């Protein structure tokens, strides 16, 4: 059997976030159990929805004062961390309380470097420890440690958002005591502990303060729709995973289009996990009343004020640069503010490089994110050179279609590389036909004249 098939089959069964080896062959009645075994954070978030609704109801009935609302959110976060992370909850709680102390005692201009440096050093230590257990000791780390690291990564986003706001004068520095409670609540509030779109500290303050005096409409409809969307995506991912595992290509060696199509389908299954996670995270935030941004012209409530993106919007992107901005939208905006806008030299490479560091510095993550940076840079240059050549509607349509296909194929390679993680698996992926497309895109930028001639012939 071809080595690429073995690689992809291993990825579907063994990739750590992800597709799970025991999910196949289960009955429909065991779907929730399989979901819990393969992605426990999804079930934990689903079980947190009633508590988020309870917060919404109590705040709306004015049963909670402003201080009690902050306490409800932070105690909910501590309880959720204890239940989901067990003995590793301190991996999240220690940096959470430490960053609040740094914000309290340091000057606003000095807080950001210290907060960012302390959190990234803490994250890096645990990421390297996980790699040591995985690749050196050949022992799979405890799943609860992965949940703790996921929560710590999200904590880094929120804490650095606060420190940047203080540095830029967009927030007032707290003093230790009651004024520090909103900052602690923002870093540990339970609807965003295991996942969810990033929102600013000022948005969080407005949400908590207005949850009693001018609460949003009942969020039952968006919560149900987004929860059903998440479960539907999980079911579709399960079906696609079963098809990929049970229908291996029978061509030896792999026929190139068959191989590329198979890897693309595997990447689609991997991306479904992200989309289901984002949908359920949005639902949990909406259940607490966060994300309401008014009504449309017909009076329908709009609950997309905080969102990481929708599958249709992301997957219809016809350019890599658009895809990069829409994929995990709030995290992309955070990286842009944290790194891209503050970098004087090579901002794109530094932004994607920092993203690889923040995600864990696994070899596949480094290769995937740096390839993504190179292809996004190539995307800017190629489309700038193509713009004068696509004046007619027919040429524009052909260019958009070809660009969409190329975007899908490049993203396929990036996603699979990031999820495979270790060097040997990434090397096998590099030897597959799927690696031709990002390589071709990068090489085209070094040959501007041949690229123009080639695109003229294609169009």
- Cα gyration radius (Å): 23 Å
Q: Number of domains in the coordinates?
A: 2
Average pLDDT rating:
83
Q: How is the biggest beta sheet arranged? A: none
| Binned strand content | under 5%
Number of strands: 0
Low-confidence stretches: 1-36, 250-254, 449-459
Percentage of residues in helical conformation: over 70%
End-to-end distance, in Å?
A: 38 Å
Structural class: mainly alpha
Helical segment count: 20
H/E series: HHHHHHHHHHHHHHHHHHHH
Shape: globular
Explain how this protein is built.
It is a single chain. The protein is mostly helical and 459 residues long. The protein has two domains: 39-215, no CATH class; 221-458, no CATH class. Helix content is 71%, strand content 0%. It has helices at 3-14, 31-38, 40-60, 66-85, 89-105, 108-136, 143-167, 181-188, 201-213, 220-246, 256-287, 311-315, 320-326, 329-338, 347-359, 363-386, 393-420, 423-430, 436-444, 448-458. The longest helix has 32 residues, at 256-287. The radius of gyration is 23 Å and the shape is globular. Mean pLDDT is 83; it is low at 1-36, 250-254 and 449-459.
């Amino acid at each position: 059997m071809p080595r690429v098939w073995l690689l992809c089959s291993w990825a579907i069964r063994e990739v750590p976030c992800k597709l799970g080896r025991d999910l196949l062959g289960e009955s429909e009645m065991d779907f929730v159990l399989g979901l819990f075994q393969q992605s426990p954070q999804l079930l934990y978030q689903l079980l947190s929805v009633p508590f988020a609704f309870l917060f919404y109801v109590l705040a709306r009935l004015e049963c909670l004062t402003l201080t009690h609302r902050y306490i409800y959110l932070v105690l909910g976060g501590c309880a959720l961390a204890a239940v989901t992370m067990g003995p590793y909850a301190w991996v999240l709680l220690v940096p959470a309380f430490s960053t609040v102390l740094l914000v309290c005692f340091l000057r606003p201009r000095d807080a950001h470097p210290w907060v960012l440096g302390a959190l990234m050093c803490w994250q890096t230590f645990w990421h390297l420890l996980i790699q040591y257990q995985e690749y050196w000791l050949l022992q799979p780390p405890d799943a609860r440690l992965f949940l703790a690291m996921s929560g710590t990564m999200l904590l880094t986003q929120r804490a650095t958002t606060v420190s940047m706001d203080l540095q830029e004068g967009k927030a007032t520095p707290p003093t230790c005591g009651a004024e520090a409670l909103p900052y602690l609540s923002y870093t540990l509030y339970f609807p965003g502990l295991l996942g969810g779109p990033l929102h600013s500290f000022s948005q969080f303050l407005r949400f908590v303060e207005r949850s009693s005096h001018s609460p949003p409409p009942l969020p039952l409809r968006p919560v149900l729709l987004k929860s059903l969307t998440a479960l539907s995506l999980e079911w579709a991912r399960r079906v696609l995973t079963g098809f990929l595992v049970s229908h291996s290509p029978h061509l030896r060696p792999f026929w190139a289009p068959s191989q590329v199509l198979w890897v693309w389908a595997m990447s689609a299954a991997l991306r479904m996990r992200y989309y289901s996670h984002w949908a359920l995270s949005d639902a949990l935030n909406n259940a607490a009343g966060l994300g309401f941004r008014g009504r449309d012209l017909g009076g329908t409530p709009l609950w997309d004020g905080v969102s990481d993106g929708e599958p249709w919007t992301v997957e219809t992107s016809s350019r890599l640069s658009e895809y990069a901005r829409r994929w995990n939208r709030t995290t992309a905006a955070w990286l842009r503010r944290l790194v891209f806008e503050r970098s004087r030299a090579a901002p794109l490479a530094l932004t994607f490089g920092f993203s690889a560091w923040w995600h864990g510095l696994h070899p596949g993550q480094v290769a995937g994110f740096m390839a993504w940076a190179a292809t996004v840079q190539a995307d800017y240059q190629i489309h700038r050179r193509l713009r004068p050549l696509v004046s007619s509607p027919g040429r524009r349509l052909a260019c958009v279609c070809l660009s969409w296909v190329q975007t899908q194929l490049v993203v396929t390679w990036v996603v699979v590389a990031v999820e495979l993680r270790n060097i040997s698996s990434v090397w096998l992926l590099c030897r597959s036909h799927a690696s031709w497309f990002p390589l071709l895109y990068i090489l085209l930028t070094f040959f501007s004249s041949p690229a123009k001639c080639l695109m003229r012939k294609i169009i």
